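S.,

As promised, the protoporphyrin IX containing FE run. Input:
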Amino acid sequence: MPIPLKAFAFVGSGLGVASHLGYFIHGEHHMEGMRIFLAFFLVPAFTFATILRYGNSGSYVEASTITTVITASYTISLFSSIATYRIFFHPLRNFPGPTKLKFSKFNHSSLVVTEGTKNFQTVDRLHKEYGEFVRVGPNELSITAPEAVNQILGAGTKCRKAEWYDCVAYPEKALNLERNRIIHGARRKIWDRAFSAKSLRDYEGRVKIYTDQLMSQLNANSGKAIDACQWFNFYAFDIMGEMAFGQSFEMIKSGTEHKLLSLMHNGMASIGPLTPIAWILPLLKQIPGAAKESKEFVKYNTEQVARRKQYTPEAPDLFSFFIDAEKNDPNPMHKDPNWLIGDCGLVIVAGSDTTTATLSHIFYHLAKSPHIFSKLREELDSSYQAGSYTEFKDLQEARYLNGIINEALRLHPPTPSGLLRVTPPEGITIKETIVPGNVTVSTPFWSIGRLESCYEKASEFVPERWYEKPEMVIEKNVFVPFSAGPMGCVGKQLGLMELRNVTARIVSQFDVKFAPGEDGTGLLEKSRDVFTLALASMMLMFTRRER
Ligand code: HEM
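Predicted complex:
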């Protein structure tokens, strides 16, 4: 007697629930995209072939009907089980947030796309609607409670980096992608050496060369409208090329974009919309012909590393330390050549777009507010001489300049959505709220930087709050544009050195204003959130100062 179709539907449904409760609900599966994807095709094909071979009639119609019934009932019950769990039983079920985001991160992704790839603003809107704790995914919370920043990112944090770090540059290895704390700590030691106080002093000369080059170009274009964001990007990128490979990309000199810059930016463009569903990124990279730019970026870095290994620069660069570790460090992990290639890409990505975004926003505010520009020029005229021996040291102490940099980082953090972390298995308690274990959490920098509970007159650009009016910084601990703790920015001092040096030089030597028809809103409204910011243009005029 033939088995009724209902029985097959029953089996499919049972398997659906069982695979959810026995497999998908446990642990991490973000790197299994390809296997799961293939299983969804191969298992039905295998089922079809088995029924055809061993079924009662051996007919194609029977085999395909039964396969369809099992597959459909499996799929429906799997997704129903997932949805039911996420809404009614998940440990985050009582946290507020839009219902569609509780179901699936695909809905977050589509929200990001429809709202112009500005996740930090999307999340900000959700916080205004739902409060300090917002469930932005089935297993994800965005938190603006000030206490969360230190607990999630601070020195003693028990949180670790989220799955996103495995996916975003798969299959690369690099310091910032490393989720294992012991391995991260061991690699971080090499980077810390490369950024010691002595090394930083050695890098001053390199920074100066590119600041000089930028000044020459601004001189040559004095009084003309130019895209400041693009020139700042050339500047930051040239310095990072010098740091990573011991040779710049010559973009300031040539005034044209190097191929690597567009490769990097095109490669990063997908990160914005795909961050909520980052498991798709490794899947894409395993498809031949897909994710071309990212693959080319890695290929370029591989070739450059090979070239860099052929010579020793006169003064050490970052790679002097990395190559030394590969050859001489007793820890064998540094022998893996993938570290050099991945860290090479990391120098470029981490060091260029962050600095560019900050410089661009500093000059947005200087062009918008002539009184801030004049006050900065006064400070510099009285305490600083461009090109002097003590130039870098003097600028460290320029209070107004440093206040301006802090304000730019507060209102326009270069990683505006914050950083994804996972809570420890026992969970954490933030402001009496228990955040369960193994939940993805983030503290959106852009929103927190604008909270009246953290800063007095939060929406205003007030450099003095950082020295003369400390009462205007209500929650000091939330200001972490470089992140904090063991995974905080290792290049912070180099970044600050560049920002101070180039800002001081320009303000001392040029008048700055918006070009006709420009008011800087394009920069604020059209830049996209791709983890760092993909900047829109901003046309400024730098005119040689009349003395
Ligand atoms: C305004 C300038 C900069 C800002 C705002 C900034 C910000 C940040 C932030 C927020 C992180 C944490 C990322 C995460 O956890 O996913 C980070 C990490 C990092 N940054 Fe920066 N950065 C800047 C400049 C630089 C520069 C010039 C370099 C030089 C190469 C650099 C190298 C790095 C590296 C290597 C990491 C990874 C550290 C680790 O995982 O231990 N950054 N940065």
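The CA atoms of residues 102 and 138 lie 4 Å apart. The radius of gyration is 26 Å.

- D.
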